[in-house]
Design brief:
- By secondary structure, the protein is an alpha+beta fold.
- It has a domain at 2-61.
- It has helices spanning 34-42, 48-72, and strands at residues 2-5, 27-28, 45-47.
- The chain is rod-shaped.
Length: 104
């Protein structure tokens, strides 16, 4: 696995008595070494391949969520049609009011 120190960290190689420091740009270490697995779990070093995979998965998840949100949005409402008011023809004569139904 390829690991590099977490930001602000200086990490030494595992004991016994190692004075070697992990390079800031990262180095290849054995995948089966539990000492490095613990350093990754504690956040002292970053597993570069795993971090890149997580970033890619996160970006894909965000893109997918954005696409789903856009698809779920209702279409823009269409403007309401203006009501049509029918005017009586100009040749029609005004009608007289109807006679009341009840007379006193």
């Amino acid at each position: 696995m390829f690991v590099k120190p977490a930001p602000g960290m200086t990490v030494r190689f595992p004991p016994p008595g190692s004075q070697r420091i992990l390079a800031a740009e990262g180095e290849d270490v054995p995948d089966t070494d539990t000492w490095w697995a613990r350093r990754v779990a504690h956040g002292d070093v970053i597993d570069v391949a795993a971090a890149e995979a997580a970033a890619k998965a996160s970006a894909e998840a965000e893109a997918s969520a954005a696409a789903e949100a856009k698809a779920a949005e209702p279409d823009a409402p269409k403007p309401a049609a203006k009501p049509v008011i029918m005017a009586p023809p100009a040749s029609a004569a005004p009608q007289a009011p109807a006679a009341p139904l009840i007379q006193a």
